[in-house]
Design a protein that fits this description.
The complex is a heterodimer of chains A (288) and B (66). Chain A is of the alpha/beta class and 288 residues long. In chain A, 38% of the residues lie in helices and 15% in strands. Chain A has one domain: Aldolase class I (TIM Barrel), CATH 3.20.20. In chain A, strands 5-4-3-10-9 form a five-stranded parallel sheet. A three-stranded parallel sheet of chain A has the order 6-7-8. In chain B, strand 1 and strand 2 form a beta hairpin. Chain B is mostly beta strands and 66 residues long. Chain B is globular, with a radius of gyration of 12 Å. The model of chain B has no long low-confidence stretch (mean pLDDT 94). Classes of the chains: A alpha/beta (288), B mainly beta (66).
């Protein structure tokens, strides 16, 4: 066994460039819904991420402890990606993006340069409002933000957001927090083709990150096998029975999916293809 | 002078800068961002802004999110 391990080849996964950022992990992980800070930090370490998302909210002025997420997170090591969750208009999303940037500038965290843009349609579905998202994307790009745009899995919307200057388009696998995985792999494939395939006017280096809906490691692997550059998730780890073990599983799933996509899969066939040779069989083969 | 801080009505005894209001109402030492009437006041400008009667002030921080 020891000898086997020594001869096992490793295939380092290249870092992911997203605008001016270089991500060494292709998992971007949320910081919401954890039972406590210790579990969150152990899960973040286990999944290997170097970027975490956060939300901007009113400070609880009556909290005598004065506890802040910023006290729990290692902001010297982690790049913070502030989101605009909870915004239902372009104007509010722009407001919240600027608030997040102001805090991260004080922390001297590189995350001050970017934002995860969400403009939501309604509270029940949390599906993106495409019109508001496009409007906010344009305004934030003009204000100097690198905009990572949460979108539906609509391929034409993805192209529109790319054309509006989004640094990355992040189609949803399925609704936020639903854990339903990649509902429409064909739509994600078309988005990847339109944004990344030169023959379709795309750029192979344009980052497409599947955001939202992931429930299991295999969902992450599928997204990566389809050709996504990364996956953003939160609830699948935070609401696992063992978040730290699930975080490790997500890390391996992401690596597996990337390698699976780049190793070049075998062609699918309509019929079987025997792995053992026919030559030399000693048995009777029906029909021969 | 009556102002609103994070949705709560508050009374100020006399003239105050935004920075003074922020220091008075916060308990955390972590960085925060501040809006007056839905417009961001950059952290470097808080000492230069005088709070006015009726101002709606939002003091925000970063929390866990996805």
């Amino acid at each position: 066994m020891a000898q086997l391990l020594e001869t096992t080849e490793t295939h380092p996964i290249p870092p992911l460039k997203v605008g001016s950022f270089t991500l060494h992990s292709r998992l971007i992980v949320g910081t919401g819904k954890y039972a406590n800070d210790e579990t969150m930090n152990r899960a973040l370490a286990a999944c290997g991420c170097d970027v975490v998302t956060v939300a901007v909210r009113r400070e609880r002025l009556i909290d005598a402890n004065g506890k802040s997420l910023l006290d729990a997170l290692d902001t010297s090591r982690l790049t913070i990606l502030p989101n605009t969750a909870g915004c239902f208009t372009a104007a509010d999303a722009v407001r919240v993006a600027r608030l997040g940037r102001d805090i991260l500038e004080q922390l001297k965290n590189p995350g001050a340069r970017w934002v995860k843009l969400e403009v939501l349609g309604d509270k029940r579905t949390l599906l993106p409002d495409p019109v508001g998202t496009l409007e906010a994307c344009r305004e934030l790009v003009a204000d100097g933000f690198e905009v990572l745009c949460y979108s539906s899995d609509d391929p034409i919307m993805a192209v529109r957001l790319r054309d509006a200057g989004a640094t990355s388009v992040m189609p949803a696998g399925s609704p936020i927090g639903s854990g339903r995985g990649i509902s429409n792999p064909s739509a994600i494939s078309i988005i990847l083709e339109l944004l990344k395939d030169k023959s379709a006017g795309g750029d192979p280096n344009y980052p497409v990150i599947v955001d939202a809906g992931v429930g299991t490691p295999s969902d992450v692997t599928l997204a990566m096998e389809l050709g996504a550059d990364g996956v953003l998730l939160n609830t699948a780890i935070a609401h696992a029975t063992d978040p730290v073990m699930m975080a490790s599983a997500m890390r391996m799933a992401c690596d597996s999916g990337w390698m699976g996509a780049h190793a070049g899969r075998m062609p699918k066939r309509r019929y079987a293809s025997a792995s053992s040779p026919w030559e030399g069989v000693v048995t009777h083969i029906p029909g021969e | 002078m009556q102002i609103t801080v994070n949705g709560n009505s508050e009374t100020l005894a006399g003239p105050s800068t935004l920075e003074e209001v922020v220091v008075r109402f916060r308990t955390s030492a972590a960085p925060c961002a501040v809006e007056v009437n839905e417009r961001l006041v950059p952290h470097s400008k808080r000492t230069q802004v005088e709070v006015r009667d009726g101002d709606r002030i939002e003091i925000v921080t970063l929390v866990g999110g996805g």
